Amino acid sequence: MLKTSILRSTARISWKRAQGPVLGISGLSASRFIAARYNSSNAGKPSIDEIQTQLPSMDDLNSAVTGIAEQAPQVIGEASNHIGYLQSIGLAQSWWWPPDLIQHLLEAVHVYAGLPWWGTICAVTVGVRLLMFPLYVKSSDTIARNSRIKPELDAINSQLMSSSELSEGQKYALKRKKLLNDNGIKNRWLAAPMLQVPVALGFFSGIRAMANHPVDGFVNQGIAWFTDLSQADPYLGLQFITAAVLISFTRLGGETGAQQFSPAMKRFFTILPLVSIPATMSLSAGVVLYFAINGTFSVLQTLTLRNKWVRRKLNIADVVHHPQATNGPPKGMLETFRENMAKAREQAARRQAMQDKEEALQAQSKELKKNSKIKILHKSDLTRKE
Questions:
Q1: Does residue 328 surpass a pLDDT of 60?
Q2: HEC string of the chain?
Q3: Are residues 164 and 304 in the same domain?
Q4: Which of these three, 280, 313, 346, is where a domain ends?
Q5: Which of 155, 163, 209, 237 could potentially form a cystine with 169 if both were Cys, beta carbons 3.0 to 4.6 Å apart?
Q6: Where is the protein localized (predicted)?
């Protein structure tokens, strides 16, 4: 019994000695490990006290988070405050393509004027429209001068369209040209407002590309209810403003303040802005903001050009309103469109017939010249030369 106990204790000691090298822990290391273990357990209270004294309080954390949140908008819009930022992100790559040119203008005003993006869009829109204002003045004056001679001009145009002979058509064309020259009318100014088309397309494409990126600052530099210019207006307020101003300036006589629309055209331009509301509801607020500002400027420009004092100072002729012929009930828009298309086809057919006749006369004239160069010689003339 005693022998068995001695053998068991010897085996235990031998197993512990063998276990030490296998685990990589010597006796001295093990003792140190055990001491360290007990020391860490005993040092718990001082460590907790130290953590409690060194960690900031919740009030300090809340104030720090608030400060970071206040500085976040400034950090977000910082990158776009430098010239060349748009080009660095793939926008404003040229100076001749309308969208790129508009983006260059927007960036310059945003950087040098220090305006937020909503103010930049408004400022550039108004600035471009002011540059185009003299063209609308000339167009308004041309429309007013045409209104003075409208009865005579309509009669000549009717005769010109009904003429079938080339000489007769040329006679009426010269008569119309003389009438326009005598009244100082240059109809090329009537096309001046058409320059607004590429400008509007440039604004639309340029701002839409900036919103789709989105450009730095677009997400937080809006105003009022549309603080994010890269997203659609959540309340459709800009769409309703745009529709209202478009209806207003059409009723007031267009952007020149001198255009006379038929009742059918007035109804058409009243319905069209209302239809545009659902069509533009998915566009970004930056794009629709341009539509609203541009339309508002159009209304103000129309009111300005309708003012008699302004027209007198700018040397714009007054519009003469002639009584419209009442030949039956007023025609609808579709019927008017069909009549205009029929007149256009009839006029095109007459022009083609006149052109064919002119080409035939030119061919006949060439043939006569060719025959006049042929000299007929008699046999007696040949014998004399010999």
A1: no
A2: CHHHHHHHHHHHHHHHHHHHHHHCCCHHHHHHHHHHHHHHHHCHHHHHHHHHHHCCCHHHHHHHHHHHHHHHHHHHCCHHHCCCHHHHCCCCCCCCCHHHHHHHHHHHHHHHHCCCHHHHHHHHHHHHHHHHHHHHHHHHHHHHHHHHCHHHHHHHHHHHHHCCCHHHHHHHHHHHHHHHHHCCCCHHHHHHHHHHHHHHHHHHHHHHHHHHCCCCCCCCCCECCECCCCCECCCCHHHHHHHHHHHHHHHCCCCCCCCCCCHHHHHHHHHHHHHHHHHCCCCEHHHHHHHHHHHHHHHHHHHHHHCHHHHHHCCCCCCCCCCCCCCCCCCCHHHHHHHHHHHHHHHHHHHHHHHHHHHHHHHHHHHHHHHHCCCCCCHHHHHHHC
A3: no
A4: 313
A5: 163
A6: Membrane; Mitochondrion inner membrane
